[in-house]
Every structure is written in C-alpha cells, then in structure tokens.
Design brief:
- Helix 1 runs antiparallel to helix 4.
- The protein is globular, with a radius of gyration of 21 Å.
- The chain is 72% helix and 0% strand.
- It has 275 residues and is an all-alpha fold.
Length: 275
C-alpha cells in the first residue's frame, strides 16, 4: 500500500505539471480560442506559472532521489526518466513547428509518456519492466489516454486554430483512430484478464462516438454587423434555430473521462477482487 501511495503521488504531481505546462505553451493561442482560462484572464500571471513549473520540476528531481534512496536506484531512475520526458514535452521535442503539421504524430509522441509511467510502476512494484505484463500495462494506459486525448474535444464548432482531431481529420478518420486505440486496450485487457471489467466501457465509448458522428451538425447562421443574423431574422431567433445537437458531444466527452479512469484504476482494483 505504501508503494502505491508513493507511486500515485508522483503521477499526480506529474499530471499537474503537464497540465500547467500546457497552459503556458498555449498562452498565446488561448487568448483567441479560450480567453476564459486563468492565464489569459490574468487570474494567474504568466511568470508565476513559469516559476511554479521550475519549482515543481526541482521537487520532482528531489523526489526521484528520495525514491532511489528509499527503495533502489532503478526506481528513482525510472521516475527521473519520466521527469525528463515531461521536459521534452514542454519544449515540444525541439520540433514544435514541424510537429504542428502532423497532429497524429504529435499525439503519439506525447502519449509515449504512458509507457514510461508503466516502466516506473513496474519497477516500483518489483515487476521487471521488460516483462509482458509491463508492456501490456503500458498498452492499456496508452489506449485509455490516447482515446481520451482524441475524444475530450469533440465540439464540431471549434476553430481550426484549436487543432482538434475532429477539426483536422473529420468525423470518420477520427473514429478510425479511436477504434484502433480502443482495440489496443481491448487486446491488452484480454491478456491481463481484465476483459470483463473493461470491455463494457470500451464498447460504450465506440458506440457513443459512432452515434454522435451520425448526428448531423448545423452551424449557426452567419451574422452581420451589430450581432444580428444575416437576413430578416433577429439575433435571438437565429440563436434559437441552432439545434440542441450542438451540445451532443458533451455526454461522449464525459464517457471518455470514465474510460480513461477505468484504464488507470481497473488493474489495481482487480487485485482487490477475490479470485
């Protein structure tokens, strides 16, 4: 249990760090796309956020040394490897402009962090990281997180600047990408004997996304000067004409959250079920 707590603490801090780094990296873009977020609104100053990133990174390095001293050097080294990969993510692997043109490769590179996390967890738990179980756990986590990455932004009205998979690739290419990542998780779950726990949420994820993409999307009519719609309709009537299906993506995004949480916690929770 104490190892589980140490491992969970480390992963939560890294998740916080990655999220804050994303806010800093997207600062200029969010001024246009998401002006309501804390950094563009000025609730948190940009230089304060950068300082928190630097302090947290130093704390993570110290934590890796602590884990290496408490257990063995390999545990600390694998956590330090995670920290190093997070730094590479922060600097966009020093190829940010090139990767922006290939969002799928960009996503795959970032999600590789899940395999490094699996190596750390296996090492902490005394499981050889190169074992089949370690690879399967990495694939399971990759499946959950990559599916979430694709399905957490399904609003079809997002501008291209947002760079979502749906906006760039369209409905059915996005569905194929999701289907491949979910299939990877399904196969991994089978070999980890977690199929009866994970297959239902995986099936729900694919089914709900398929139904969502079958719903036709109507965009609001163009607006003239002063906010009124083009033509004789007043602005209020034009807004009312937008179908409720414009929010149909919200339940699917919620399912994606449950999907990734299930892939994170189910391997641990399964050990609590009497055989």
């Amino acid at each position: 249990p104490i190892k589980f707590l140490y491992g969970t603490l480390g992963q939560l801090v890294l998740l916080f760090l990655i999220r804050l780094m994303d806010e800093v990296k997207d600062f200029e873009k969010d001024k246009v796309v998401h002006p309501e977020r804390p950094l563009p609104r000025g609730l948190i100053r940009y230089d304060e956020a950068v300082t928190v990133i630097h302090v947290t990174l130093l704390g993570c390095v110290a934590y890796s040394l602590f884990l290496g001293w408490l257990y063995r050097w390999m545990v600390g080294a694998t956590f330090a490897l995670q920290v190093g990969f997070v730094v590479l993510m922060y600097f966009e692997f020093f190829a940010g402009e090139w990767l922006e043109e290939m969002p799928l490769l960009y996503g795959l590179l970032h999600q590789f962090a899940i395999f490094i996390a699996a190596i750390f967890i296996c090492t902490l738990g005394g499981i050889p990281w190169f074992s089949m179980k370690g690879v399967l756990l990495g694939c399971l986590g990759f499946s959950g997180f990559f599916t979430f990455e694709v399905c957490r932004k399904l609003d079809p009205t997002y501008p291209k600047l947002k760079g979502t998979y749906l906006v760039i690739y369209g409905k059915w290419k996005t569905y194929v990408i999701t289907m491949v990542t979910v299939l990877l998780g399904s196969v991994s779950a089978f070999f980890l004997h977690l199929q009866w726990l994970l297959w239902p949420i995986q099936a729900l994820m694919l089914t709900s996304l398929f139904i969502l993409f079958l719903i036709p999307v109507s965009k609001p009519p163009p607006r003239g000067r002063g906010g009124a719609s083009v033509g004789s309709k007043p602005a209020a009537a034009a807004a009312a004409a937008v179908p409720s299906s414009s929010k149909a993506h919200k339940p699917v995004e919620a399912i994606a959250v449950v999907h990734v949480l299930a892939h994170l916690w189910m391997p641990y929770l399964s050990t609590l079920i009497p055989s």
